[in-house]
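2024-03-11 09:14:02 INFO worker-7 job=invfold-0412 stage=load source=structure_tokens
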């Protein structure tokens, strides 16, 4: 039972909660965490800043928002019944379809009664005298919990660049990651979109069709592959569902957390040029990004091998875009293909053949300011009625650094991570006891099918909390040495690949001043899972388990 006491702060009635587990964030991770904590017989509550659950899929409501992993893979795997009953209407689900799925899961498993919406956690402090966290909400409420699960997401801190003059702009503006719930009607408008990452590439074709005129402000061209989306056909769905448990298991032990893509054994450089071309063409026609990423074993580790695929995609861009000057502007040349998140699109490059679309290179002539009339670059002023920022996020660390997270009397996490995040397994931070991260930096989270990683992390955390409860352990803390070894391993694996070469959000390159550290673990989800299981099997090697203020599990 949650011990809840109401009090009045100013004109607001707030509640002080005493819980076993406080969960920060009501997206896919936070919801699954409630389900598992309840299963242990513990009291748990999610604190969610939004007015609804869904996290990423609640906020990213821009036109064209859609998952780039196939729907049959991008879903929870914990319930075979749910897997079998849920019908995905398209090969790649749209944002509204995914949000409706998340709400269905929340209702079906009765999760909402333990979700407190419209509540942002502003601070959290651990007291070594009591082995408890005290969390403070933006409404002034106080929550006491033995454990804290940070399900705060990796792409949940939208970032509008610090453009001079934005406040003077007379038109409307919005960011992909905090899109107005009621939508935006661009009909008859002169629209500017800044940013050509996954979000920009998804919204550009749709907004181009609605707007009177669209200016795309591109700093860096990105590789994008066709999704080849379409309605979910029975010949895709039926065989998949017939083997769902086996496919889920295959995904768990794979590289990217998606089934159907066995680890490649051949080098791109060993394949004859004609055969390689045929392979890339087949993958292009099939649609999706994982096929490319797993087609040859040196795709992401050897620059020459990578270049064979990069050049194939560049030729495709040149063949689609009619104006050769525009085509060359769209051709990515500054990073190996796949080292930034590979985008998936529907009609992206074709959009530049429209008369009402103009591509503006803001690398050679950077945006100097936003004026009351539009965007001014080094060369000219573009008059606009609306601006859509698809400029990304303070990824992976932004949401955690925004919370004043600390052990009483010690440095805040934001300061501890000043030179970049350091974690043990991406699940725990040395010096921050009883706090767990879901898909944190140092884990394969963002380089995987996120829901699969979320389930693996939450399951692992659940087992650890159960282990502690059963042994009257009240404090779980990663050892600094174990963390150092893990960080070194994460770096060593990253440095053996081409990933760190790219100026991606994986290295924080999109945030001026952010330390350049490659944050995800790219050893693959199967390898990582084995490592986590080994740590557990060895009595949670690398963790100091102490204290004796036991938690009683009900049931
Ligand atoms: O953000 P991004 P995103 N002036 O950081 C540009 C996931 N996601 O929201 O490359 C001008 O990738 C910036 O330029 P540059 C997915 O994991 C998934 O698109 O830094 N331009 C870049 O073009 C994805 O990777 C899905 O030179 C500026 C863009 O803004 C991640 O979210 C859909 C600028 C930002 O691209 C983030 O994607 C959407 C400036 N000052 C998102 N500052 C799917 O599942 C930044 N830019 C399909």
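2024-03-11 09:14:09 INFO worker-7 stage=emit residues=555
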């Amino acid at each position: 039972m949650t011990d809840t006491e109401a009090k009045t702060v100013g004109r607001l009635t707030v509640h002080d909660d005493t819980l076993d587990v406080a969960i920060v964030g009501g997206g896919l991770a936070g919801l699954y965490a409630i389900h598992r904590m309840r299963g242990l017989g513990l009291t748990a509550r999610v604190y969610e800043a939004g007015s609804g659950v869904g996290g990423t899929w609640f906020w990213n409501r821009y036109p064209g928002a859609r998952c780039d992993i196939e729907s049959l893979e991008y879903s929870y795997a914990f319930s075979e019944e749910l897997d079998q009953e849920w019908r995905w209407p398209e090969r790649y689900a749209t944002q509204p379809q995914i949000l409706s799925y998340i709400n269905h899961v929340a209702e079906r498993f009765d999760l909402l009664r333990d979700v407190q919406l419209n509540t942002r956690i502003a601070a959290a402090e651990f007291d070594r005298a009591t082995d408890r966290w005290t969390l403070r909400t933006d409404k002034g409420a106080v929550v006491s919990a033995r454990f804290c699960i940070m399900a705060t997401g990796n792409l949940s801190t939208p970032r509008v660049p610090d453009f001079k003059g934005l406040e003077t702009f007379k038109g409307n503006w919005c960011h992909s990651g905090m899109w107005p719930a009621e939508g935006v009607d661009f009909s008859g408008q002169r629209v500017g979109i800044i940013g050509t990452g996954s979000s920009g590439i998804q919204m550009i074709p749709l907004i181009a069709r609605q707007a009177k005129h669209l200016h795309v402000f591109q700093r860096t061209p990105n590789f994008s592959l066709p999704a080849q989306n379409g309605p979910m056909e029975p010949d895709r769905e039926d065989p998949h569902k017939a083997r769902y448990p086996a496919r889920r298991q295959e995904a768990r032990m794979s590289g990217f957390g998606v089934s159907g893509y066995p680890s490649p054994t051949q080098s791109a450089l060993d394949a004859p040029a004609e055969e390689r071309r045929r392979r890339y063409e087949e993958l292009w026609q099939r649609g999706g990004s994982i096929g490319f990423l797993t087609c040859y074993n040196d795709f992401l580790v050897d620059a020459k091998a990578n270049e064979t695929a990069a050049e194939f995609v560049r030729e495709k861009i040149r063949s689609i875009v009619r104006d050769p000057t525009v085509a060359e502007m769209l051709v990515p040349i500054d990073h190996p293909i796949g080292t930034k998140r590979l985008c998936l699109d529907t009609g992206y490059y074709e959009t530049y053949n429209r008369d009402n679309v103009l591509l503006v290179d803001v690398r050679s002539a950077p945006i100097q300011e936003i004026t009351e009339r539009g965007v001014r670059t080094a060369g000219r002023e573009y008059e606009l009625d609306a601006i859509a920022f698809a400029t990304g996020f303070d990824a992976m660390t932004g949401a955690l650094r925004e919370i004043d997270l600390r052990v009483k009397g010690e440095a805040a996490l934001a300061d501890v991570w000043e030179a970049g995040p350091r974690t043990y397994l991406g699940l725990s931070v040395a010096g921050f006891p009883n706090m767990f991260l879901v898909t944190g930096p140092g884990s394969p989270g963002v380089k995987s099918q996120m829901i699969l990683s979320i389930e693996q992390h939450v399951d692992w955390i659940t087992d650890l909390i159960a282990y502690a409860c059963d042994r009257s352990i009240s404090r779980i803390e990663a050892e600094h040495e174990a963390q150092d070894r893990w960080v070194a391993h994460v770096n060593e694996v990253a440095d053996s690949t081409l990933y760190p070469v790219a100026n991606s959000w994986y290295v924080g390159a999109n945030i001026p001043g952010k330390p350049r550290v490659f944050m995800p673990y790219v050893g693959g989800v199967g390898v990582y899972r084995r490592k986590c299981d080994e740590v557990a099997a060895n009595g949670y090697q690398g963790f100091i388990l102490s204290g004796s203020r036991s938690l009683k599990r009900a049931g």
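2024-03-11 09:14:09 INFO worker-7 stage=report msg="The radius of gyration is 24 Å."
2024-03-11 09:14:10 INFO worker-7 job finished
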